[in-house]
Amino acid sequence: MAARHFLLHRLRLCSFQGFQVAPPQGHRLWCSATLSPEEATENASGGIHTRCSDVEVDEPEWMDKEENIVRDIEPIVKLTRHILFSPRYKNGELLTMEDERAITENVLIYHPYYEDKIGSGLFAIMVSGVNDMHD
What we know:
The protein is an all-alpha fold. It is 44% helix and 0% strand. Pfam families: DUF3223 (PF11523).
């Protein structure tokens, strides 16, 4: 994370957090064929936009896609929160078969090393607090 911010600072890119990555005002762009930010804003009627802040975020097609993603992810997040924060499980306690199956089918399949983690099968899944991992 720090390397990313260092690189953006080194390349003189600003406002990475708000997805408005643009060169600072008054500097030339890397390619001489592109317009400077000042020229792009002056020529806005020509349809050329080089700044990300000119992009309309609330477009209906993106809002529909975002709603579909949230609709798919919300039950998985609720299930995970319910298991982690419910009083049913204490720290170090194994999950029930039903919860273990739900976690395996809905959460672990998205892990980048799913095949390595699962292998020939799972023995058990247990709840573990974050503080235990740092000891």
